[in-house]
Design a protein that fits this description.
The chain is mainly alpha-helical and 455 residues long. It has a domain of 129 residues. It contains 13 helices and 13 strands. Strand 10 and strand 11 form a beta hairpin. The longest helix has 22 residues.
Length: 455
């Protein structure tokens, strides 16, 4: 069976429901609207938040999927029955959907929903771990009939990616809500083997992880990875997720009484954080960049009879493309306070290249590849507002003391989604950053639930 593409199913929507926007070039960025305080009055915020809560509360039970086929445990679906992806179990989507659903249960004081979620979130994780390969690799996506939709093994192509490192975070989320971690003990070594497989197959010479190729990397057409050579992109999304997952699993190891694993995972996370700080921070632009690690001194091979001269002292080069991923070292707390302040004031608050009317652009509007066109496969991360992007930036602003700015972004997100709900009766996957127009995939749920953490 051929791999199942997450975005193929949307191609037919392009003509009927997508908005194509050609960005205006040659204009200087303008100051972002309402960048320094709440946009909504207290009453309006409550009304709009309540509308979203009612919508999510009504659909939440439909996202809880019973065991089906090879998915032997109850799991969490990213979208409603009958919609595309409704029978898919995705890696990082499951984490964000689960976080949002637990927040819903908290806000609604719904103990019954919380208990059901404990079963389904734990089950989602077990479905993944029980389909791990002997070498530790875990599939990116599964269906009730297809255990490895992207065929991460069994192919002659050596560059296959595997699931994104989110399973420690998913396990810790479930353990926190259940009040214990013992249920995970028989499966914890599968998570450790998963980490070992990433390090074995995807470590670079500078200690950062690299994507093997550009398939299913999360932010699909991120130009720092999409179309780039195999094993060249030490993407910040991959490395910051891995850092956060190592910390989550270190905490799980502590709760399970595995002191040696606890210390080893924390040490591994600390080392990775230091490498992100060393290699990904760009002092010229005050920004964190994904780096290209394919830098080789080939003089001995190409001109063997000439003196080598000055050594090549660098092992990577920043891909100076301002993706939202530059905020991820702030989201997970890797960034020093001084660097975080420089990044936020210089690149987010100074103008509207990243801070837009309706949230944080996924790509700076000054980049040459900036585009707001509809795209089915890969989905478009070249400027549109995604709720998961707003969430990452919101968490970054909060973590580093920018409360007013975080409140503004929360209000933008609540307003954006509540207006979409008012207009269309459902939500969408991504949005026009300047008008708020829905651009793709009516009925999308998934990480849109993360808005509930902003309420």
């Amino acid at each position: 069976m051929s791999p199942i593409s997450r975005r193929d199913v949307l191609a037919g929507l392009a003509a009927s429901s997508a908005v194509s926007i050609v960005p205006v070039r040659g204009q200087e960025p303008q100051a972002p609207a309402a960048g320094g305080g709440p946009l909504l009055s207290g009453d309006e915020r409550r009304q709009r938040a309540d509308a979203l809560l009612r919508y999510f509360a009504a659909i939440a039970p439909q996202l809880l999927r019973p065991p089906d086929g090879i998915l032997k445990h109850p799991s969490v679906a990213p979208t409603l029955p009958g919609k595309e992806y409704s029978n898919n179990l995705w890696d990082w989507d499951t984490l964000w959907t689960s976080r949002g659903l637990f927040r819903l249960a908290e806000l609604e004081h719904d103990e019954s929903l919380k208990q059901k979620l404990c079963e389904h979130v734990s089950g989602s994780l077990l479905n993944f771990l029980e389909h791990a390969y002997a070498g530790g690799q875990i599939p990116i996506m599964m269906t009730p009939t297809v255990p490895d939709a992207f065929r991460i093994q069994g192919s002659n192509v050596p560059s296959r990616n595997q699931a994104k490192p989110v399973f420690g975070q998913l396990g810790l989320l479930a353990a926190d809500q259940r009040g214990d971690a013992k249920w995970l003990e028989p499966h914890f070594d599968s998570i450790l083997r998963f980490y070992d497989s990433w390090v074995t197959h995807n470590s670079s010479s500078i200690g950062l992880l690299v994507w093997g190729d550009d398939v299913a990397v999360g932010d699909d057409n991120d130009p720092t990875t999409f179309g780039r050579p195999f094993f060249s992109s030490a993407n910040l999304l991959l490395n910051c997720l891995f850092y956060q997952d190592l910390l989550a699993s270190a905490e799980l190891a502590r709760r399970l009484g595995r002191a040696a694993d606890h210390e080893r995972l924390r040490s591994q996370a600390k080392e990775l954080a230091e490498r992100v700080r060393t290699f990904c921070w760009d002092p010229r632009d005050s920004y964190y960049y994904t780096v290209d690690v394919q830098c080789f001194d080939r003089r001995a091979e190409l001109i063997p009879n000439y003196p080598r001269g000055m050594d090549m002292s660098w092992k990577c080069l920043p891909t100076r493309i301002q993706m939202f991923t530059g905020f991820l070292p702030l989201w997970c707390g890797i960034a020093p306070q001084q660097n975080a302040q420089k990044l936020i004031t210089t690149n987010y608050l100074a103008d509207n290249r990243l801070c837009a009317q309706w949230g944080a652009r996924s790509l700076s509007s000054l980049e040459t590849m900036y585009s707001l066109k509809f795209s089915s496969n890969p989905s478009n991360w070249l400027g549109p507002v995604w709720i998961i992007v707003n969430y990452f930036v919101w968490k970054a602003l909060q973590r580093y003391g920018y409360k007013k700015e975080a409140d503004t972004l929360a209000d933008k997100t609540i307003l954006l989604l509540s207006r979409d709900l008012e207009t269309h009766g459902s939500l969408n996957e991504y949005y026009h950053p300047d008008t708020g127009a829905a651009l793709s995939h009516k009925g999308f749920i998934d990480w849109n639930l993360c808005v509930l953490e902003m309420i």
